[in-house]
Amino acid sequence: MKRKSKLTIFNRILAVILVVCIAATAYVINKYPVITEATEAESTDASFSEEINIDELVAGTYGGVEFNTIEDVVNYYVEAYNYTKTLTAEYTENGETQTYYKLVGEEELNVSNVLVEGKSNSIVDNLVPGIVSGLFSSDVIGLVPSGNRNPDLDTRTGSNDTEFDCTTSALTADDVAAANVVDNGDGTITITIQPKTVVLSMPGEDAQGKFFNSLGDITSVVESISVLTFSEGTIDENFVVTYSGGTGSATIDTSTKEITSADYEMLVHVDVQHASITVLRDKSASLDITYANHYPASDEYLEETKGITRN
Fold this sequence. Notes:
Blueprint: H1 6-31, E1 38-40, E2 60-62, E3 65-67, H2 70-84, E4 88-93, E5 96-101, E6 106-116, E7 119-121, H3 122-135, E8 155-157, E9 163-165, E10 176-183, E11 188-195, E12 198-199, H4 218-223, E13 228-230, H5 235-238, E14 239-243, E15 247-253, E16 258-277, E17 280-295, H6 299-306, E18 308-310
Antiparallel strand pairs: 1-7, 2-3, 4-5, 4-18, 6-17, 8-9, 10-11, 11-15, 12-14, 13-16, 14-16, 15-16, 16-17
């Protein structure tokens, strides 16, 4: 059975969180204007500059492989990604033997820095983890970007319902803001990549969507929420989703070019202006999303999440 689009669900979660946070925070701040838990917070500018969060590449030989440019690093990563996604293993799920990717991972979603009208509120901050945990169900998937743990079903949906194949990487040097390599001294190297900043990333179509499981067109989901309107301007002007600063690291066996472990952290900032919900008019809100993927998944995670065991 094809895995339901993770980020279609993800978008709906985000939309619910936004509505709840705007309504609840505005209610608390309006009803209890002197509440000590409500504090002014510095507003985050949604127009990010390209801030580099990793070390620059130092040209040289790492693990017996020569890397002189970012293009060298990206090309090697793509080769390793493509090879790793050809590797499969057998698992038992619901009593049946299944063939999935050899390297499957864990995922975690967190929402933080929730601000409404430039203010944070502990009451709403305490609501958010419960909302997220109640709506987001962790899954087991292949190396991101990925739509499934089954190679035969590993696709994602981009704009205009275009399906793209996640069994190979479309990442290029032009998509990357920074990259580096570390020699681990044990026959492996670790490549770390930071893709370029993108506003409203689409799966498989831009720097973030080629490297992470990006959210896709959140605006269409938000636009479908009947209780949410905008007092002025269009949704594209008032709902800005910026991907910036996220990184991914992959440890690669240089003798085979197999990725043996990896960690990805996608960072997303959502900024909403002039939002109105029923009697609450012309409110601004912002929040940060961290979507993390760790490979390989532990045996405990596989069992607890999907009842899967390695054979």
